[in-house]
Design a protein that fits this description.
The complex is a heterodimer of chains A (515) and B (75). Chain A has 515 residues and is an alpha/beta fold. Chain A contains 13 helices and 20 strands. With 75 residues, chain B is mostly beta strands. Chain B has a 5-stranded mixed beta barrel with strand order 1-2-3-5-4. Classes of the chains: A alpha/beta (515), B mainly beta (75). At the A-B interface, strand 10 of A face strand 1, strand 2 and strand 3 of B.
Chain lengths: 515, 75
C-alpha cells in the first residue's frame, strides 16, 4: 500500500526525554493520529529513524540523534522508497536536528548567525551539505511538529499530536479576517503585505502603542501576520518607534487566547526559534506557545531575518506567499513548499540574503493539516462528482499537485545559479566602475566606513548563460565598529549597498535599509 | 564564565530586521552583545548605566551574546 505520510522521529531521543511511560504515551497518541489520518484518506506510517527494524527497508538507522547528516540520509532513503506526499518531523531540535547551513552573510557584529538551522534540506532531493545553494529546489512537503527542547514531560507533545489528530478544516471565510501586528517603523511594509494577502490593511495594529495585552476578541481571527522584532532565546516580539522597543506580543499573554485553528506567519528574527524554555524562566517562545494553545501551524524564522523598510522583500514575501496559500486551501506543508518556490522563483539569481531567507523560514505544524477549505467549483457539488470521488477523495488530485511541485522544484534546482562568497584576494574584485559607483552611493548614503563582501554567480549549464558572462555581486556593509549613536542618527536606515555586475559592468544597484 | 571589558554602545546587525543599538562588551577575546535574562533584548534600561564603563561580568555566552547573571563596574 502506498504511504501518503511518513512521521519520522528518534525513538531513543524521545525515550530519553520522557522515560518509558512517557514514550509509551507518545506512541499511543501517534496511533490515534495515524487512525485519524486514515479516516481522512491518508495512509500514514511512523518511522523511528534510529530503529533498525523501522529503517530496515530503507538503509542505515541514525546512530546519534544529533547527527543531521545521518538524519538527512535516512529521510532521503525513506523518501526515495515511499515517495510520501507529506513528511512530518516529530520532535524539536534535540530529537531530530535541523541542518546547520552556513550563513552566506555572516559578519561579526552585523549578521551574527554563523549557521542557519534549517529543515529546508529535508525538503530537497539533493544530498547532505551545508551550502544553501544546494537546496534551492525543494520538492517535498515537510513540516515539524515540535516538542519542547529539554522537556521531561510529554504533555506538550501529546497535546500537539492530539490537536493534529482532531483538526478540522474550516471555511475559507474563517481565514479571511486577520490579526495583523507590526512594529510602527515598518507600518508601510506591513500594510502592503496585508493588502496583498487580505485586500486591506484596516486591521493592522502598530507597536507602539498597541500590545502586548491583547484580548481574546483581538486575537480571534485565525490568520495572524506579524512583522515585529524578535530576538534569540526570547519570549516576546517587539515593536519599534525611534529608540523605543516595547513588547508587542509575548508568550505568557497568549494562554487561553489563541483560537483553535489559528495559523501564524511571523517575519520576526528568531520568530520560530526552538530553545529550551528553562533558559527563559520556564516560558516557551511565542511559536511553541501558539501551537500549544491550539494553533495549527506557525511559519517563522530560526535566525535573523531580512526585509526592506518600505515596500516588500525577503521575509515579507515568503510569509505572504505562505499565508496566501493557506487561505487558498493548501495544506500547511504545501503552503510552505509553494512559498519557497514562489520566493526562489522571483529571482534571476538569489542574492546572499535571499538564500538565507529561503533556508531560515520553516513550518512548525503537521504538514498534512488543511486549515482552510478550497472553495469548490460548481461541479464538485454534483452527485456525479461526489460519487466518482467517494473512495479516493483528494488523493488523485494531490498526486497531480505533487507532480507540479516536483517539476517546479526540479526546475529551480536545475536553473537557479549558485551565489557563492569569494575569499579575500581570490576575486572577483569589483571593477573600477563598480568601485566608484559603490563609493559614491555609500558617500551619499552616509556610509563613511564599511566592510565588503563579494560573491560570484555561477550559472547552470542549462541556462546557456555561461558563455563569457561573469556575474558578480558586491556588498558594502557599514563596519560594525562605527561608534557612537550620534554618528549614525541621520543614516540609521541605510545599511548596505549591493551592486550586481556582468563582466564588470553595473547592471543593478540597490540600497538595503534596516528594519 | 567571566569576562572583563569596556561597555560601548554600537549599532549591530546592520541590514537585518534586528538592526539596533546595543550595549557591547569589548574584550580582548572579541565583542559581545550584553543581555540580561528577562531583559528587553533591544533596549534594557537596567544596563544603560554600564555604558562607557569598564566592567567584570559573569554569565553564559550563547552565540555572540553574553547573558549576564551578575556584573561589577571596575572603574
Amino acid at each position: 500500500m502506498a504511504i501518503d505520510k511518513v512521521i519520522v522521529t528518534n525513538a531513543a531521543a524521545l525515550s530519553a526525554k520522557y522515560g518509558k511511560t512517557g514514550f509509551g504515551k507518545v506512541g499511543a497518541a501517534l496511533k490515534k493520529l495515524i487512525a485519524a489520518d486514515a479516516k481522512r484518506g491518508l495512509t500514514s506510517k511512523l518511522i523511528a529513524l534510529d530503529s533498525k527494524t523501522d529503517m530496515a527497508p530503507y538503509g542505515v538507522p541514525v546512530a546519534s540523534a544529533a547527527d543531521a547528516k545521518a538524519v538527512k540520509a535516512a529521510i532521503d532513503a525513506i523518501y526515495a522508497r515511499e515517495k510520501p506526499d507529506y513528511i512530518l518531523i516529530l520532535g524539536a531540535s534535540d530529537v531530530v536536528p535541523l541542518v546547520p547551513l552556513k550563513n552566506p552573510v555572516y559578519s561579526a557584529g552585523n549578521d551574527d548567525d554563523r549557521f542557519v538551522p534549517s529543515d529546508l534540506p529535508y525538503a530537497c532531493n539533493t544530498g547532505y551539505g551545508t551550502d544553501i545553494n544546494r537546496f534551492v529546489g525543494p520538492t517535498r512537503v515537510v513540516g515539524r511538529l515540535p516538542d519542547l527542547v529539554g522537556a521531561k514531560s510529554p504533555d506538550y507533545l501529546l497535546k500537539l499530536i492530539s490537536l493534529a489528530a482532531n483538526y478540522k478544516t474550516l471555511a475559507p471565510a474563517d481565514y479571511q479576517q486577520y490579526f495583523g501586528l507590526s512594529a510602527q517603523v515598518w507600518q508601510n511594509s506591513t500594510s502592503l503585505s496585508l493588502t496583498k494577502i487580505f485586500g486591506n490593511s484596516t486591521g493592522l495594529n502598530l507597536a507602539p502603542s498597541s500590545g502586548p495585552k491583547w484580548t481574546v476578541k483581538q486575537l480571534s481571527p485565525r490568520a495572524h501576520f506579524i512583522n515585529c522584532h524578535g530576538a534569540h532565546r526570547d519570549v516576546s516580539y517587539y515593536g519599534q518607534k525611534g529608540d523605543s522597543y516595547p513588547i508587542a506580543h509575548t508568550a505568557k499573554n497568549l494562554v487561553k487566547k489563541i483560537v483553535p485553528g489559528t495559523v501564524l506567519a511571523a517575519e520576526c528574527c528568531y520568530g520560530a526559534e526552538l530553545y529550551d524554555p528553562v533558559l527563559t524562566g520556564g516560558q516557551a517562545g511565542i511559536a511553541c506557545t501558539y501551537l500549544g494553545e491550539g494553533a495549527y501551524g506557525v511559519f517563522g524564522s530560526t535566525t535573523i531575518a531580512y526585509g526592506p523598510s518600505s515596500g516588500n522583500g525577503s521575509a515579507d514575501l515568503i510569509c505572504q506567499f505562505f499565508l496566501h496559500a493557506v487561505i487558498d486551501g493548501a495544506s500547511l506543508g504545501r503552503a510552505a513548499l509553494e512559498a519557497r518556490h514562489q520566493f526562489a522563483g522571483l529571482y534571476s539569481h538569489m542574492g546572499p540574503t535571499d538564500l538565507k531567507t529561503l533556508a531560515q523560514f520553516y513550518l512548525l505544524g503537521d504538514p498534512s493539516i488543511q486549515a482552510a477549505a478550497i472553495v469548490p467549483h460548481g461541479l464538485n457539488k454534483t452527485k456525479a462528482f461526489q460519487s466518482a470521488f467517494a473512495k479516493i477523495g483528494d488523493a488523485g488530485v494531490r498526486t497531480l499537485r505533487r507532480e507540479r511541485l516536483h517539476r517546479v522544484g526540479t526546475s529551480l534546482k536545475k536553473d537557479l545559479p549558485a551565489t557563492r562568497a569569494t575569499k579575500p584576494g581570490a576575486g572577483p574584485e569589483p571593477s573600477r566602475e563598480i568601485t566608484r559607483v559603490l563609493a559614491d552611493a555609500a558617500a551619499e548614503s552616509g556610509l563613511t566606513g564599511h566592510a565588503s563582501l563579494h560573491f560570484h554567480v555561477a550559472h547552470k549549464a542549462s541556462l546557456n548563460k555561461g558563455d563569457g558572462v561573469k556575474r558578480t555581486v558586491h556588498v558594502l556593509i557599514s563596519a560594525p565598529d562605527q561608534g557612537p549613536k550620534q554618528q549614525h542618527a541621520a543614516f540609521r536606515k541605510v545599511v548596505a549597498i549591493v551592486a550586481t555586475a556582468e563582466n564588470g559592468k553595473l547592471v543593478h544597484l540597490k540600497r538595503l535599509h534596516s528594519r | 564564565m567571566e569576562w572583563h571589558g569596556t561597555v560601548q554602545r554600537k549599532v549591530i546587525r546592520r541590514g537585518t530586521k534586528s538592526e539596533h543599538e546595543a550595549l557591547v562588551l569589548v574584550t580582548s577575546q572579541g565583542e559581545f552583545k550584553l543581555r540580561r535574562v528577562g531583559g528587553n533584548p533591544f533596549h534594557d534600561e537596567t544596563l544603560d548605566q554600564l555604558e562607557g564603563h569598564s566592567i567584570r561580568c559573569a554569565g553564559e555566552l550563547d552565540g555572540n551574546e553574553i547573558f549576564m547573571s551578575e556584573w561589577e563596574v571596575m572603574d
